[in-house]
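#structure-requests
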Amino acid sequence: MGPGATRATLLASDGVTPILLFRFRFDRFRAEVVVGAGSPPHAETTADLRRRRRAVAAVNGGFFDEHGAPLGLRIAQSRERVPVRRNVDWG
């Protein structure tokens, strides 16, 4: 992984499913929320995003509707890109 980054693999309680863990030193790496261009934001795979941004890692951390639009609040580069959804019954 390189200086300031480590990786470990654990097995889930089923003894088969791997769980990948990554740790990054934030004095060497920067974490940021990235939201695709447009409204609704343009869909992009994490692999494509990682290559385009030349990042060492990318994580798809959201949920999306049937059209690929993000569900829930998204703030990127200090701007609200997707607003809070009103009247929903989940976090």
